[in-house]
Fold this protein.
Amino acid sequence: MLLAAALGFGFGPAHARPAAGQESSIAWSQLPPEAQATEQRVHTGGPFPYSKDGVVFANREGRLARQARGYYHEYTVPTPGQRNRGAKRIVCGGRKPTEPDACFYTEDHYGSFRRIVK
């Protein structure tokens, strides 16, 4: 770790990620239009453009609060000009997929999450 710090790879506060359950937030109105549309589809139950939309999100990275398996589900946020699914997702948690307790937005394929606030 000392070598990494000497080479400029920081591990201090500038590079720290919030603890699980301590995510930053983003206002729904600040989401890209594609993310807004995806989040709305979650509440109406679809239709979803990708076959993997709605699958269980296992939270292997531990970035979200720990919950029982099946609590979180992920949905693709299309990226204009991208030929594949890209890195943007919305992950929602709750017992009923169309009535989630909370939804989170990630632009970096689960590297960080921001809680969506309406």
User: Anything to note?
Assistant: The chain has one domain: 23-117. Residues 1-16 have pLDDT under 50 and may be disordered.
